[in-house]
Amino acid sequence: MTTNLAECINSVLKGMHHLPITSVVRETYFHLAALFSKRATSYKGQMQGGHVWCRKVLQAINKPKARTNTMYTVCHNRDNLWFRVTKFDIPNQGIAGGQ
Questions:
Q1: DSSP letter assigned to residue 99
Q2: Which of 42, 60, 63 is nearest to 51 (CA)?
Q3: pLDDT for 23-50, tens place per residue?
């Protein structure tokens, strides 16, 4: 995440290293405003297509979700965060009713 953020900032600031600070702020503002409207159009199309999350976010959500289908958790003491986790070899065995 930090690397991506740094790369985004570098792409915005590319070619502005010789400008005074007020010009850098102004250029950054207008560059990000243009980028925002471009991305908003793209995301609006995705949302109208029924997508709530982008593909990368869905992968990040679904990967741990698939792992939890093979586990059964019992809370013994919520105050001390004591849990018992049983791992099964067969997917969906840990979910009641196989949902």
A1: -
A2: 42
A3: 888 888 888 888 888 888 877 887 788 8
The β-bridge partners of 77 are 82
How far CA 57 is from CA of 64, 68, 75, in Å, comes to 12, 17, 29
For 71, list phi and psi in degrees, rounded to 5. -130, 150
Average pLDDT in the 95-99 region?
A: 49
Q: 39-47 long-range CB contacts below 8 Å, 24 or more apart?
A: none
Name the strand (E) or helix (H) holding 87: strand 82-87
What's the confidence (pLDDT) of residue 97? 45
Give CA–CA dist 65/52, Å, rounded: 17
Query: How confident is the model at residue 61, as a pLDDT?
Result: 85
Task: Judge contact between 27 and 19, C-beta under 8 A.
Answer: yes
Name the DSSP letter for residue 72: E
